[in-house]
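Re: your question about Glycosyltransferase 2-like domain-containing protein

S., sorry for the slow reply, the queue was backed up all week. Below is exactly what I fed in.
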Amino acid sequence: MRFQNTNVLYCRGGYEEIEGDFETVSLETFEYIVSPSPFLDAKTLRPIEFTPFQLDGQNRPLPRFEHASPRVSVIIPVYGSPRYTLDIRNEVEALLPELKALNGRVIISVDGHDHPLQTSLHLNLLKGIDVETVEVHSHEKNIGFIRNVNFLYEKTSDDEIVVLLTTDVKMQPGSLSRVIAPLVSNDDIALSTPFAVGGENLEAPESDVLHWRDLDTILSNVETSYPDAETNVGYMLAIDRRKYPAAELFDEFFENGYGDDSDLYYRCVNLGFRGVVADNCCVFHEHGASFDLTSMRSELRSENFRRFMGRWGQVHSERHPKAAARLDMLKSERGRLASALVQSLPMPKIVFLLPTNLRTIGGVAAVFDLVEALCDLGVSAAVICRQTPFDESGFASRSISYDNVARRDIVLANATVLIATSSDTVEPVQELARQHELKTGYFIQGPEFSFSDGQFLSSVVTGYLGFDAIFVVSRFLEEVVKDHVDKPISLIPYGPRLEKYYNLGISREPKSIAVQLNGNTNKGAAFVAGVVASLVPKGYRIYSFGDDALRSKRKNFCTHLGFLTTAEKIRLFNRVEFYLDASNYEGLGLLLIESIRCGAIPVYRHNGGTSEILKTAGCGIEIGDYAAIGKIDQQLSEFRRNANFETEREFCKKSVEGHTLEAAAEAMLEWYNAQC
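Result:
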């Protein structure tokens, strides 16, 4: 039976289509509602012999399937940030032994980009992957998430189990087998999704467990019940092609994700099958891998929700509340079980003490990122926070409240080293270390004695004494603190994650400069104001970002963009010729490294951290103090006339290439293995 130009298949069961043009096709004992698509060729559909699904609860008999394990194909659509591609490559390589045992394979499709260099970045990161088990495809032009998924789905056969995996998912060994298990062992289950931290309606059970990997370890040992998902989510979605007869997975009625997976769920329900939660599995879902270079994410989500509710609103409102209530009860039970078993888990060996869990603060986010990177390396690490005003649900690792004394003491009783992260955590770290007989460390990210105009100089300097180890994020900080410490100093070369920031190779706006401007004196707000006043009359375009409150005040002199997401910073740093670092001082200067990786030429004051690296390497453009602001135009003009931008970009990038999150975690692990 062939349906011309067909994208999506429904069994008629009383759910009325509100939008779109549809035709009815009769096949002996049942009817299909077919949604035409102008983008696809004719597809062959294999009918299943059963009578129509009835809404009155009289279930029709389901076909029976062989319970021997079918072949498994993992399909991975790739788009967006190359860092997700690097992450998913690591996940695939860890998955290969399990996949080979399942007679499985991986099919990857790199979608086209507006910028060809970005497609090349993805393909280069996938080079050398196991070609016997993994096949890689690419598209010259962008076809969108849904068409890319459908392209991959076409590469599989109708007797397989297919697992859709997005690039922003991390999982543990055994996850794949647990997700496909309900499809193999139950004739009435066609879809399966695990719980996830960041799982939307399938969010992982709330518990005292600190890390998603530990929660997965607990769940992997519980008896499964496979509750209805209502609805499944596409971050890791197993589909039994023996039961779902459509040739395409998602309906192009939904644009580029959001709502397509829920629509699939109700189509399977309408065929008489179930979509369930693999409730013995938990993965981590970061969100947004396919949307990191678009500002249309919220608009797409809103429009697709409107379309979904137009199609399934009535049935969703009837079914979802009861199913959600049942799932919430199960999650509560699982959460209580996990909390009760938390002491049976391997306890963190490296513990950091932070003043707060507010991850919008750069230094706080850096510690959480370092902890997660250590966990990825197999070292259990954790964070204790003196204040916890920030909701940490949805994050890979969570903190322990300093005020939760019982929980805190259990963790510290099994730890090896406790690390201070700021001057106001020094005394608590030393006291707790004495109580629990722990080694101590101090993770220094900036010249704290200069903070608050030097008000705390004495206490900061004396606080460096008495630790077993001192960790610094740059050689500049090593020079700053070496005369005030009594233990060896270890360099932890912190920086952005590999491939998180990248050069798109696009044309840049002539005489354009990006700069952070947030009203913070320490970040050189007064200096920036002087630079703007000097350069704008000479034809320079200044793009500032930071405090949203400054947006209207700066509009006559520069374009102020307010707070920027990672994606917005990538776009900005790829748009401008230069990035100005005007801070009075920097322990490292993360923004400068991020902009360099995106290809902006660094213009910097000699303020420590990254600027010291650039000055030593002799790259970028060093500018003087406030009195030299009038000379900046001359420096930039001379550079624009005489320098080779591409050569300088590569020179600058190479000078800071050793500063990455991964390198920082490796250095911390090396110290731990040597000293603990």
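The first strand starts at residue 2 and ends at 3. Confidence is low (pLDDT under 50) at residues 1-60.

Happy to talk it through on Thursday.
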